[in-house]
Design a protein that fits this description.
Blueprint: E1 3-6, H1 16-29, H2 39-45, H3 50-57, H4 63-83, H5 92-100, E2 105-109, H6 115-123, E3 131-134, H7 135-138, H8 142-152, E4 158-162, H9 165-174, E5 178-181, E6 194-195, H10 201-209
Parallel strand pairs: 1-2, 1-4, 2-3, 4-5, 5-6
């Protein structure tokens, strides 16, 4: 293994409570919609592409309206996350610093453009990551974006850490091993190496590579 690529939501931090509040505020005050979102609802949606999330939240609206409204939600979300940092998973910063001494670290997410910089700025983590990519920037699937990061950084043996079935399938699409963040939002559909806490990642890697 020569590098580690990470998902964000449910893997590096849990922003669902802040995002639920921001989206609810935007929908009620700016769009005058009688919608209240919860963190549990967002957990069931995160990991999907934004157009798919918008389609589920606003099924009676046109595609253009769905995309306009979800974009407004995301702008409100960015502002909220920069004002109030979402919590990192326990031991994350120290673990990343230790891993970064051995491996280049990367991020690939299905999030909107601007979300990963928001995450990095909120916690001052930008120096720990060599590169990142997201579907909101490229318009491509997570698997395609993983492959893009691998190719432009000339990685030979990357692994992907994520928490959902979609993450598992994206890693499979990219042709790299998947590690499951079992503390996150979802479950894989077959046995894979998993960790119960982010701080367990170094020991899991040592076990896999022995």
């Amino acid at each position: 293994m020569d590098s580690i690529i990470f998902d964000v939501d449910g893997t590096l931090w849990d922003s669902t409570e802040i995002v639920a509040q921001a989206w609810t505020w935007y929908l009620q005050t700016r769009e005058h919609m009688d919608i209240t979102l919860t963190s549990q609802r967002l957990m069931s949606l995160f990991g999907q592409l934004l157009p798919d999330i918008a389609r589920q939240l606003f099924p009676d609206l046109s595609e253009a309206e769905q995309l306009r409204i979800i974009d407004g939600c995301c702008q409100a979300e960015h502002e909220a996350l920069l004002k109030k940092c979402a919590p990192l998973y326990e031991g994350l910063e120290h673990t990343l610093q230790e891993l970064g001494k051995k491996y280049p670290l990367f991020i690939v997410s299905n999030c909107q453009d601007g979300y990963i910089p928001c995450f990095l700025e909120a916690h001052g983590l930008a120096p720990l990551f060599a590169d990142w990519e997201c579907s909101g920037h490229t318009g491509k699937s997570k698997g395609e974006n993983i492959r893009m990061v691998i190719e432009r950084n000339r990685l030979d043996r990357a692994v992907y850490l994520g928490d959902t079935l979609g993450d598992q399938r994206a890693a499979e699409e990219a042709g790299i091993p998947f590690l499951h963040a079992a503390y996150g939002f979802g479950q894989p559909d077959k046995p894979v190496p998993s960790l119960k806490a982010f701080s367990d990642l170094p020991s899991l890697l040592s076990y896999i590579l022995r």
